[in-house]
Amino acid sequence: MTDAAPEREVLTWDLYGQGSRELAQAVADSGYVPDVVLGIARGGLIPAGSLAYALDCKNLFTISVEFYTGVDSRLDVPVMLPPFLDAHDLDESSVLVVDDVADTGRTLELVAQFCAGHAREMRTAVLYEKPHSVISCDYAWRRTDRWINFPWSTEPPVTGRSGVLDA
């Protein structure tokens, strides 16, 4: 007898469109007006762009953080990757930090520490928040304890790192 694979949360492109709009509406309804939307690469880039458009915020920055190396496989601690954002670009700004999911929350925690002492105010927004996250996000579209299949990362890459198409 084999164990069945755990049920996954599946986010389709259509559902993503609805969810990102509802998340943006929650930010707007709260009265928070970000000067900067800061997307955490890679998973938070698409949600950050969507929120920036929906909130009419033209200042969209990115910060690269690596933590996950595969399904339920991660580094010991999240690490920032170059090119590095100049934290002084956030000075006295209200910043909305956006990611796809707050799983452990440690990536968001690292970015919050990076913003500390620079941003006038910082809030966090994610599509999904998991119950064991060390960060309680200001805005979360849904809460789940399941692994999430995002439409932008479910399929394998179409090329290998060498730039040659896989056969």
From TrEMBL:
Entry coiled-coil feature ranges: none
User: Gene3D superfamilies in the record, alphabetically?
Assistant: 3.40.50.2020
InterPro entries, A to Z:
PRTase-like, PRTase_dom
Q: Molecular function terms in GO for this entry?
A: glycosyltransferase activity
Domain Phosphoribosyltransferase: start-end pairs: 11-155
Q: Which UniProt keywords apply?
A: Glycosyltransferase, Transferase
Keyword Transferase in the entry? The reply is: yes
> Which SUPFAM superfamilies does the record associate with it?
PRTase-like
Which PANTHER family does UniProt cross-reference here?
HYPOXANTHINE PHOSPHORIBOSYLTRANSFERASE, HYPOXANTHINE-GUANINE PHOSPHORIBOSYLTRANSFERASE
| Protein name according to UniProt | Phosphoribosyltransferase domain-containing protein
Origin organism is Microlunatus flavus
